[in-house]
Design goal:
heterodimer, A: Aconitase, domain 4, B: 469 residues, alpha/beta, 2 domains, 34% helix, binds iron/sulfur cluster
């Protein structure tokens, strides 16, 4: 997995609250058996008209959108389903971090496994970010801080293991497989069998 | 030291390596449910790395999400009724299960159905187990006192290869629900009311335990309706302590323990309920004695009102305005009387025998309004056969509703069963997100009772009026 230590980029802002996984990745794109090309499907119902043409006003369709690695959204992002197609699509489009006031648990887990940094900020910082689309920020994974262009530096929560996995590009399956002995011992000694 | 909660007891028993500041716990999974949509990439990963499925006996597979609800008797049929990509996904499921030795309930199985319906039906879902599935409504299985939650495809790969997940312990929340439900009000209304109360992110970071007299009085299928929508309140896990109702439900089911093993299991299950002095991180209580049927008006399940209420006014809140615009509704207007184009009874929230019997009771001798279409999709093939044995399908068909094979169907509109753009559907499913039931589809979440009353009236209607009639 790609190592992520620090992301510097202008932001792309989608101000809607409660953006759910059905909006990030509509169900009709879930019949794929691979991960390829999902970046074209994110926010499809907002991004394309009935004939599949890009709607020019929509932020993802504007020039320079592909260069934005940081997505800023309204309150409470990623609620809904466990479809990992949502973070796959966001990463495929080019995002490496998403910022909101709250990020749903399952989405957060999935994001961290795909090199998408979930950044939760206080409402004051959030309001500033919403009001300043395109601001150049740095998401510093190592320091667990968000750096704003006016020099402010805001901490964000990220547990040590997730931080390490992002910074070292650690593959969590490899980590689990190394504990094979402990897993076998657990299976052999548990008081009842499922 | 204070006592332990139901959640703590099950959690502690599944720790392979405890969590530390530097690393999450390695957490053992007793049952992994799999379906066609969130697994192909996980199996590909196993193949790429030359890994085996560690414990094929602890996985159970079915097909439900992109699977057609019109009869499919052979794989050749599938190509006629399904989109090529969906058919490809179903084929991949069949191949993957065969290659890795996993039990699959496919087209030839009488147990095929929605993954969260068949686990309990088979008796595979049991108190004290840890259960995961690449689907967020895995919380359904918590109704039995299991820790059950949804995972992504990468984690599906972790469970296939190691039977474990990396997890940090969530906080504990107790939701106490008391009061007697009045006629025409059901479990679906209770959970909608709770989500309205605590919000769609009210449970984020928590494992919920539902308790109180209302919960104890519900049967297992109604309890599943409650736990099912836990994720709509933001919590991944929603549990109910096992009791006689749980044990009676499981007795004799194909995958339930038998003989001495049954007695041992029951003894274990009896010890699971939270200790009287157990401490929760947050406590919420809800009195449902005066509860009315609930309906949603917006584009998330927290945007919900009692059926006699009016849509609230949130002034210039952008997201709120956008939701009403999408729904074609206005602040201050009542939901009652809103014209309805379609009615869907189904999904892992409300597609079991309790629901279908209720629907039949209310539909008997009545007709669905000419102006709308009604689709009734059983949660599993077993439910379908049971409903047919009781003659319920005849009532549905006589009333003018369509009766299908089991599957997720119009809950997420992946298999071709969709609500057309701009049409309003009263649905017994769990999500009213923009586009959930099809591009531009407008969803009103409600109980099966409200769905039937609305189907008959052609507009959103109060089921209590049907009872009075
Ligand atoms: S019925 Fe709906 S919510 Fe339930 S598993 Fe299927 S798609 Fe998910």
């Amino acid at each position: 997995m790609e190592k992520i230590v620090r992301i510097e980029s202008p932001t792309l802002v989608l101000p809607q609250d409660d953006i759910d996984t059905d909006q990030i990745m509509p169900a009709r794109y879930l019949t794929t058996t691979t991960k390829e090309g999902l970046g074209d499907a994110i926010f499809a119902d907002w991004r394309y008209d009935a004939d599949g043409r890009p709607i020019p006003d929509f932020p993802l369709n504007q020039p320079g959108a592909k260069d934005c690695k940081i997505l800023v959204t309204g309150n409470n992002f990623g609620c809904g389903s466990s479809r990992e197609h949502a973070p796959w699509g966001l990463v495929d489009f080019g995002f490496r971090a998403v910022i909101s006031t709250q990020i749903a648990d399952i989405f957060r887990n999935n994001a961290l496994k795909n090199g998408l940094v979930p950044v939760v900020v206080d409402s004051e910082t959030h309001a500033w970010l919403l009001a300043n689309p395109g601001a150049r920020l740095a998401v510093d994974v190592e320091q667990r801080r968000l750096e704003l262009p006016d020099g402010r530096s805001v901490p964000f929560p990220l547990d040590g293991f997730s931080r390490l996995c992002l910074m070292e590009g650690i593959d969590q399956l490899g980590y689990l497989l190394k504990h094979e002995d402990a897993i076998r011992r657990f299976e052999e000694t548990r008081p009842w069998q499922p | 030291m204070s006592g332990r909660t139901l959640f703590d007891k099950v959690w502690d028993e599944h720790i392979v390596v405890p969590e530390s500041e530097d690393a999450p716990a390695i957490f053992y999974i007793d049952l992994h449910l799999i379906h066609e949509v969130t697994t192909p990439q996980a199996f590909s990963l196993l193949r790429e790395r030359g890994l085996e499925v560690r414990r094929p006996d602890l996985h159970l597979a079915t097909m439900d999400h992109s699977t057609p609800t019109v009869p499919v008797s052979s794989l050749a049929d599938l190509d006629v009724v399904a989109e090529p990509q969906a058919a490809g996904q179903i084929r991949a499921m069949i191949d993957n299960c065969r290659d890795f030795g996993i039990e699959l309930h496919g087209f030839d199985s009488e147990y095929r159905g929605i993954v969260h319906v068949i686990g309990p039906e088979l008796g595979a879902t049991q108190p004290g187990k840890t259960i995961v599935c690449g689907d967020s409504h895995s919380s359904t299985h918590g109704a039995f006192g299991a820790i059950a939650f949804g995972i992504g495809s990468t984690e599906v790969g972790h469970v296939l290869a190691t039977q474990c997940l990396l997890q940090r312990k969530p906080q504990r929340m107790a939701v106490t629900i008391d009061g007697r439900l009045t006629a025409g009000v059901s479990a679906k209304d209770v959970i909608l009311a709770l989500i309205g109360e605590i919000g769609v992110d009210g449970g984020t970071g928590y494992a919920i335990e539902y308790r109180g007299s209302t919960i104890r009085a519900l049967n297992m299928e109604q309890r599943m309706t409650i736990c099912n929508m836990t994720i709509e309140a933001g919590a991944r896990i929603g549990m109910i302590a096992p009791d006689d109702t749980t044990i009676d439900y499981l007795a004799g089911r194909p995958r339930a323990p038998q003989g001495d093993a049954w007695d041992a299991a029951v003894a274990r299950w009896r010890a699971l309920p939270s200790d009287p002095d157990a401490v929760f991180d947050r406590e919420v209580s809800l009195d449902v004695s005066g509860l009315e049927p609930m309906v949603t008006f917006g584009t998330n399940p927290g945007m919900v009102i009692p059926i006699s209420g009016r849509i609230p006014d949130h002034g210039d809140d952008v997201s709120f305005r956008k939701a009403l615009e999408y729904m074609g509704l206005q602040a201050g207007q009542p939901m009652l009387g809103t014209p309805v184009d379609m009615v869907f009874v189904g999904s892992c929230t409300n597609s079991r025998m309790t629901d279908l019997r209720r629907v039949a009771e209310l539909l008997r001798g009545r007709r669905v309004a000419d102006s709308l279409s009604m689709l009734i999709v059983p949660g599993s093939q077993s439910v379908k056969h049971q409903a047919e044995a009781e003659g319920l399908h005849e009532i549905f068909i006589a009333a003018g509703a369509e009766w299908r094979e089991s599957g997720c169907s119009m809950c997420l509109g992946m298999n071709g069963d969709v609500v057309p753009p701009g049409k309003l559907c009263v649905s017994t499913s769990n999500r009213n997100f923009e586009g959930r039931q099809g591009v531009g589809a407008r969803t009103v979440l409600a109980s099966p009772e409200t769905a039937v009353a609305s189907a008959i009236a052609g507009r959103i209607a109060d089921p209590r009026e049907l009872l009075a009639a």
